[in-house]
Recover the amino acids of this structure.
DNA sequence: TTTT
DNA sequence: TTTT
């Protein structure tokens, strides 16, 4: 789907080592959380942190880049599409999840840029 | 939060008339679904439609624009931030929702441009 | 080059019928101006228009879409890369031009969306 | 002007120390070149570098961030608008320039995140 | 759960 | 040069 119709871009830190799944086809899937951190001072001058968490899914070549280079704590950029899907949890409750499907990964804070 | 760290842009059609809430402060909130439609032909040459649904929240001035001009079916553009939050549903089940908080609304397919 | 490193998105009106060039390879190139219009009222309450013009270049399939559907005045969306190049004009003066190379075209104000 | 109608985002390296101008109003303006580097291997397996240069202009608070933190070689992110203007050079030749007017600056490759 |  |  067109970038003009559905486009997400995020820059943040990987929360935990990505979970990598090897599909039967030989393709990989990476799933991980990405944190957007924001810092500000409140009226008392105390430093406050606000963190927004996102769920990212990457397939194929992007999953491989994630597996090799984007461990816990790494700063990366992600561009992709916003997607939602539903599933039943173990208690039979219908759950909805919204994920960012990554089309591009950019490694940051890496000597030499880390562009893909 | 910076557009570089968290940015979403969508162009699509409003699913149902937006739900408008008038806060005690006098501020409005609009909440609605936006559809990204994609059409393609399958191997049999049949036209297939695939729709991705997004939940949009708009505050203040943007909520007013939505209320006035963005009824069911209207084509609009939305730019904003990706945000997640949790709540307990009526059965006490913890639910997570991910929404796009609109910073900008652009009315499309409108004679007269409709730019804000 | 990655969308994260170089990304431009524009929505506006085509200024003149695009200039289409047929390359020897059979490929097409479309070149045209796109207008971003902005309206505001000055301190006297007069309606003022400010227009920003952009030069767009589209290749191949996108050039064909432009040729067929994006004549003078049409409202379209463009996503692509920012590129600069230099050439010598007829008086031997070195000139620099900056263009948006379109990766995607979205036809707007068209019944049925006009998505590519 | 709306992000939906005119939006540019770049991540790259500052080419030279930015040129800072102090306006009579006390406001600062920063002007600098930003490089998008791309590396690939040609058919002989040699590493080739392709660089796209962009001209960035930042005003006020963003100019101050640039002056303090974004010296030659620094990796930064820029989000803003695409703008063109014309002027006469010293030989009376009319020149056109296209610049990215930065609305946001994000310092990258910096211990401590560098978010604004 | 990251990062500062 | 578009559009409103």
């Amino acid at each position: 789907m067109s970038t003009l119709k559905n486009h997400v871009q995020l820059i943040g830190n990987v929360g935990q080592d990505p979970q990598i799944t090897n599909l039967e086809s030989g393709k990989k899937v990476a799933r991980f959380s990405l944190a957007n951190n924001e810092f500000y001072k409140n009226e008392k001058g105390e430093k406050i942190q606000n963190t927004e968490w996102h769920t990212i899914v990457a397939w194929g070549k992007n999953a491989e880049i994630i597996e090799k280079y984007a461990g816990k704590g790494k700063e990366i950029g992600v561009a992709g599409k916003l997607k939602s899907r539903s599933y039943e949890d173990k208690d039979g409750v219908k759950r909805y999840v919204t994920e960012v499907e990554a089309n591009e990964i950019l490694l940051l804070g890496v000597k030499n840029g880390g562009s893909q």
In short: Residues 91 and 97 of chain B are 16 Å apart (CA to CA). The two ends of chain B are 21 Å apart (CA to CA). The longest strand of chain B covers residues 28-41.
